[in-house]
UniProtKB/TrEMBL annotation:
Main localization category: cytoplasm
Subcellular location(s) per record: Cytoplasm
Enzyme class: transferase
Domain of life: Bacteria
Keyword flag Transferase: yes
Entry protein name: Leucyl/phenylalanyl-tRNA--protein transferase
Amino acid sequence: MVPWLGPEDPFPSVERSLGMNSGAPGLLAASADLLPSRLVDAYRHGIFPWYSDGQPVLWWSPDPRMILRPDEFKVSPSLKKTLRRVLRDDAWEIRVDDDFAAVMRACANAPRRGQRGTWITTEVIDAYLTLHRIGDAHSIEAWCDGARVGGLYGVSLGTMFFGESMFASVTDASKIALAALVAHLRRHCVALIDCQQNTAHLASLGGHEIARKAFIAHVRATVDAPRIPWRFDKRVLADLVGSGGAVPAA
């Protein structure tokens, strides 16, 4: 049985998560609250929340775990062409933390194949906004002609980044934001991005599964490292496309 956590109860060991033969592989615990302090504690232990409106807060730690290593990010020829265009065209910008709440709302409203509704409720937005205010959550945003057209958000602890959700209102805008994030993380020796769940889209970009044991070991080794800086712009994309896409430094 999945344990119910009271306000002061610690998370159980991730090894107690439901197995692959259960109806909810990776489900670890449930609670009534989504306190920011519990949320940070969850990430520090390789656990994340995911639930639907009207459900209790459900906490997960699946085995295996989907990850993306920045050094293994796949830049297809078409994406490389797009990134070079973004670097050359002054209409395109990458902004960091311009409006974190707006990015979360856009992710909540993004259509998902095979899904109805969203888990990114007002309660969830409020909790992650608290993490954003204390410097533990960030948004990376793709802008074109003065409009936010794509982006993503996630949690950053030490040299570990936990990706949460992406959106795009124009083709490839979320990939542009992800590419900028990857390039920034490479520069600061961040070796792994948590992607939580296996999807074909992430696999096409270089994501793959690793054993939960290895994932947890990496989290423990990185979350207490000094914070990396969170100020960058689209020029980081030049790291992914070579000299053909370079732009002059400011």
